[in-house]
Fold:
Amino acid sequence: MTAAAPTLGTLEELPADYRAAMARRNLVPLWPSMRALLPQGAPRPRTEPTLWRYEEVRPLLLRAGELTPIEKAERRVLVFANPGHGLDGLHTTGTIYAGMQLILPGETAPNHRHTPSAVRLVVEGEGGFTAVNGEYLPMAPGDLILTPALQWHEHGHRGRDPVIWLDILDLPLLVGMEASYAREGERQTVRNAPDAAATRYRRAGLVPYASLAASRPIYPLLRWPWAEIRPALEALATDTPAGTPVHLAYVNPETGGECLPTLGFSALMLRPGEEVAVPRDSASALYHVVDGEAEAEIEETTLTASRADVFVAPVHARVRLANRSARAPLFLFRIDDAPLQRKIGIYECFPA
Ligand code: GTQ
Structure:
């Protein structure tokens, strides 16, 4: 049962001398701010449903490659700043930071580690790589690469054309916690051997035998190749009724749980002409078109998105997705803050 909330007193109602006396002592009355801090019934997100078109981002990012040498940028990134938070806020949603990073042939983005967790979703180009604690992680379009909190990571490029990827970090959260910082390190000694996705965690349902007895690695798998995700979605689609989302979650192969503590990653496939309602939940989410033509309805906003475009939905939003093509499938990569919400006990899924 929910009762109607009474209207509360305002600051203006209070005598000026009383307000001044409080302010001098660093005191503020709660009740004038109560409803803003705790809105009735549902959060009032500042995050606005927003679209970033790759065809508009790409030329500006390539120009950054001409204007700003890597030494002057460390990470050459254009940030997807949600206008609802003000562009200076560098928030894509309340908890999620996203941007696109450019690395040119021969460049290195130096080794560092930081408290925010990061992931990369490769958008364009061959020959890019990330090294995490000496593990060489090759990048091909659509691949997901994790660089979890406090893990050493550097990026490089051994190919011929520009490499661009989508960066996603839980940076706004760490900034809000006043816990965000980085340390620089020496260049890593990178192993000249295939990574865990090619050796120890080759397929779902199989883990190295010894891991059953020993303490399990916290981040056993750091790379999910798109070449394996896409056929997995296509296989699931053959066994999923039309109108039901074909939706796979990326999980830690040792625990079956989320692969990072704060952010969750998943991939969606919509068959030609298909439309689905994403189950409405309390999380904020970012969607990236890996391939195909999408239409998204986020509360009152309708967006159309093509390959490599990014759009976001605030917490608690209703989201409908449609494949605009009658012939080709649509593939979307989704990031949400549901893992964090589950951990702090506030995750909710709402009835349709
Ligand atoms: O590649 O390590 O977009 O440290 C922001 C901060 C990327 C990175 C970002 C970073 C990185």
Notes: The mean pLDDT is 97. The helical segments are 16-24, 34-37, 54-67, 171-176, 226-237, 338-343. The two ends are 20 Å apart (CA to CA). The longest strand covers residues 97-103.
